[in-house]
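Anyone? Bumping this.
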Amino acid sequence: MSLRDAPVLLVEDNPDHVVLIQRTLKKAKVTRPVVVVVDGESAVDYFMGREPYRDRQLHPLPVLVLLDLKLPRMSGLDVLEWVHQQPGLRRLPIVVLTTSRERSDIDRAYDLGANSYLVKPLGLDALLEMLQQLNTYWLTLNQMPEVYSPK
Amino acid sequence: MGEHTIDSSHRPLSAGLLVSPEPALSSLADSGSALIQARSERDQLRTELLAARAEIERLRQAQTSLQGIEDRYRALFETSPDAIAVFDLEMRLVLSNLAGAALHGYSSAEELIGKYDRDFIAEEDLPRLAERAPDLLTIGKLGPIEYHAVRKDGSRFLVEMRISTVWDRAGKPVVFVGVARDITERSRAETALREVYEFNKQIIASLGEGLAVHDADLRYVIWNPFMEKLSGRPASEVIGEHPLKVFPFLKEWGVYPLLERALAGETLTSEDQLTPLPNHSTPLWTMTRAEPYRDRTGRVAGVISTVTDITARKQAEEELRQLNVTLENRVAARTRELQAVNSELEAFVYSVSHDLRSPLLTMHGFAQALLEDCGEELGATGRDYAKRIVNAARTLDRLLGELLDYSRLSQTEVEPEPADLQSVVREALIGLSAEIRARNAEVTIEGPLPTVLGHAATLLQVVSNLVGNAVKFVAPGVTPRVRIWAESLGASERLWIEDNGIGIPPEHRDRIFRVFERLHTADAYPGTGVGLAVVRKAVERLHGVVGLRSEPGAGSQFWIELPVASRRA
């Protein structure tokens, strides 16, 4: 898999939201594959290339991460913190996509290096509009850095 | 002294002088031959005559001298301010001076002569005096003795009397001499003094605090019963003693220096002292006050010190302090509990609004997906149901959002800072532009709007809610017209938001600012019932006031009042 095929990693524990986001990403004409992991630990495993994501051909590092904050055990903020301690990974664009509008969550996320913070809107139309913008900006206009797995 | 005046011991000598010349004259006629003898006898007689003359002269001189003494004593007798009288052995008055007469209300001394002593003495005092009378014949004097005397007119007065007996050479009593003086005034003064003394004594004894008076050497002069009780030392052991001899510890306690300074003229009050007195099981709290005692000339003649037992007051203070500590602890504990409950509630609201929002998005999202993807299969009824789900989810979402706003307002501390109402209102209108457009509303700002002391983000929420309401609560078919302006009240500014809406009946004015209070059905005017509660809470957090003027059917005028932003240096 080349960089062109590098996926969008969706870290989301709510399967309903996964379905709705995947459906809307498709509608927003996001052409990259969307890989879903359901908790923070799986996300770290994916970044590290641990089982079941050892094969980098099958599981290449993502170009963008959509990160929910409310995750079981290792939260989204924990993931952010961990990523930014990894030299080859900390430049990876991470967009928080959550239901929380809490000021403390927003500030903490940016402190830990989030590149953007989006609140899941009510309604598919609003979500579609949001993801279209996201596609345009982060996946089309934005210049991607080179990232590599921590050793 | 009267004895000499009355003594007649010279009289026999004078009588002898008168009879002795007679035999010498007859012998001269009998004998002629004995002329020489007669001559010699004549010479002798002459000699004797000369001697007699000299003797007479001497006696005359003596008598003159005696007369002089008598005169002097008489003068003394008459000028004495005291009454002086001479009584015979029957106690009958034989002589009195004028003072004696005057004392008893008589005009002359002669009037008194022949009266008995008892004529001048009140009847009730007679037995007492009679009892003492034998002293006159044994020791020769009586008194001073007091009795009530009686004047000529029967009135009475108090007399002090001294009586002496005059003896003759053989030791027999001759007369009695009495000296009397009116002591009514003196007695009255003495009684008054005694009363003052008693009065003072009782005051000192009855004092509920310790009183000690020291002389110029600081020796105790007065030691009242309270002091006896306090110290366990009776006055008899203390009076006349030096403080350090009786209570050596006073120096260490700092009380003795207080006395010394008072003696130097200062008036001082000690600190509250814990005094471990040997006669008390637990130490007492005392307070000592010392001030100089001054004599009539203003010179410090001693020290007056008072000791107050303040143990009860100290105990009360201590109890109060303990109570305060307990109360503070209880308040602190209660505050901690409340804070715990509060943060629990905060966490609850946070998690409720987020956890509820997540499935809400799902409900809403899939209902919409159902409409989009399977609209055809659902049919008209099915699509209607799905739309209702979508609408309900939207309402719930707004409610959760506002609840979050409300709880956030209650919890976060907002520090008032200058906020420009002009830009706050403009931003609010931008946020509401979709709503305004949809309702075809006219919103006018009668600017310029001032800068107030507030918080821009919080005020944005307030203005948005008020303008949103103004646009929303309008009778069907009426074009919403909203007017916004500011009114200066000196130290504060009022922002008015006027609408042409349905108005609010007076009886609902208070209710509308409470959470979940709604005046209308969701059908007529959709809303959550939280908007105005957020407004009031927010304005109160900014130390402002919110109010309204409204007529049913004639629109409402809501206002918020906030302090003017003061220019900071």
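Late reply, but here is one note on the structure posted above: Chain B touches chain A at residues 350, 354, 357-362, 364-366, 368-369, 372, 390, 393-394, 397, 401, 404, 408 (CB under 8 Å).
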